[in-house]
Amino acid sequence: MSYERSVSASPHELVSESVWHVQLPELRFGRGSVRELGFQLADLGVPADAHGLLVTDGTLADLGHAGRVTDHLEDDGFSVDVYDDCPREPAVSDVDDCIEFVREAGDGGYDFYVGLGGGSCMDVAKATRAVVANGGEVLDYIAEPTGEGERLTESGAPLVLLPTTAGTGSEISPVAIFAVEEKNIKEGISSNHVRADAAVLDPTFTTTLPPEETAKTAMDALGHAIEGYTTHDYDSLLRPEDPADRPVYAGRSPFTEMFSEEAIRLLSGNVRTAVHNGDDLDARENMLRGALFGAIAGLTAGATLCHAMAYPVGNRYHTNHGETIAVLTPASTIDYNSASDPGRFADVAELFGVDTTGMTDRAAADALKEQYVQLQQDLNVLPSGLHELAGVTEDDLDWLAEQTVSTQKRLLRTNPRPVTVDDVREVFADALHNWE
Ligand SMILES: [Fe+2]
């Protein structure tokens, strides 16, 4: 019995989940951890004279970050080519360009890969390494009907990721997401063969991120942390007969909760400083740690309604993912979902720094929404709602609600509160204007 079929099985066949599982790349964190990149590669079995590829973008090359990485690698005896053509919000064709670059460099690809950048660069590095190892092109491995839905069977040469933003969590996730230009949608390759072997998180790479980007990526990270904390308990879901059928988003566990709690504290407590004083390395380090912990929690337990609603918005209006999460969170994650368990949202309020003394759980959840919106305003670079973000009006809401419910079943299945198209429409309406 597969997991999907077990959901619709008759009640006497249903068995509650009793196991949680976490899979992560090897992690190295801290100031100067880039100096251990060579050691990390050797630890993954890469020989000292190996020839590798650094996948990054032009801005990071201009800022000298790419040079820092190649210098360290060359000091350790490796030789490195640099591919610095990753665009923001990459499309399938951009990954195919990188794959072509690798294939032209020689049969079988490189001995190792390093991805340096935000989610875009890291996703290109992840997909390139996987497709080179498995053959064919990106669309072969994207789910049907958009792609061919072929299964990846090989991981390929070792891949290490160095994030330069504190947000997406791509450094630990088994997913790489790209725009499919012909269909005007975003689709992902999702497989443990896409996940990096190791991540090196050095906060000194994050201080050059401009305030706007810092704010956007932080709101995505905060979304992962809060959504992961407020999704279903793993043992309230159903147990798959075959462990291989356990979904990637498997509900919150004691493991993920611990990371969510620390992530909410770190991100909400440091984002103002990181945005307004980007050189503050303590704040940057706390943000990078918060984003990592948020990703460990949210990308294991699972994101909820807010991320589900963000995909149709991103597909139609090509909005930035973090900004989309920022404008949708008050109405979806907090307002709508808190009715499922106000006590849990009162806990989030406390982690967020709200003094909840003497408040009912409901009042604490409301105070969380108020403080979250206040935080966005304080950052000074985020839009006031969906209308300012993308010009969305009442007329667009039916389509957005319909798309969310019809295309985001995977995320909505584990939302803590059931949703109908009408519910989602109302949440979108609430998100048009978070403040005047
Ligand atoms: Fe996200």
UniProtKB/TrEMBL annotation:
<dbReference type="InterPro" id="IPR001670">
    <property type="entry name" value="ADH_Fe/GldA"/>
</dbReference>
<dbReference type="InterPro" id="IPR039697">
    <property type="entry name" value="Alcohol_dehydrogenase_Fe"/>
</dbReference>
<keyword id="KW-0560">Oxidoreductase</keyword>
<comment type="similarity">
    <text>Belongs to the iron-containing alcohol dehydrogenase family. Hydroxyacid-oxoacid transhydrogenase subfamily.</text>
</comment>
<dbReference type="GO" id="GO:0047988">
    <property type="term" value="F:hydroxyacid-oxoacid transhydrogenase activity"/>
</dbReference>
<dbReference type="InterPro" id="IPR042157">
    <property type="entry name" value="HOT"/>
</dbReference>
<feature type="domain" description="Fe-containing alcohol dehydrogenase-like C-terminal">
    <location>
        <begin position="253"/>
        <end position="431"/>
    </location>
</feature>
<dbReference type="InterPro" id="IPR056798">
    <property type="entry name" value="ADH_Fe_C"/>
</dbReference>
<keyword id="KW-0809">Transit peptide</keyword>
<protein>
    <recommendedName>
        <fullName>hydroxyacid-oxoacid transhydrogenase</fullName>
        <ecNumber>1.1.99.24</ecNumber>
    </recommendedName>
</protein>
<dbReference type="Pfam" id="PF25137">
    <property type="entry name" value="ADH_Fe_C"/>
</dbReference>
<feature type="domain" description="Alcohol dehydrogenase iron-type/glycerol dehydrogenase GldA">
    <location>
        <begin position="26"/>
        <end position="203"/>
    </location>
</feature>
<dbReference type="GO" id="GO:0046872">
    <property type="term" value="F:metal ion binding"/>
</dbReference>
<dbReference type="Pfam" id="PF00465">
    <property type="entry name" value="Fe-ADH"/>
</dbReference>
<dbReference type="InterPro" id="IPR018211">
    <property type="entry name" value="ADH_Fe_CS"/>
</dbReference>
<dbReference type="GO" id="GO:0004022">
    <property type="term" value="F:alcohol dehydrogenase (NAD+) activity"/>
</dbReference>
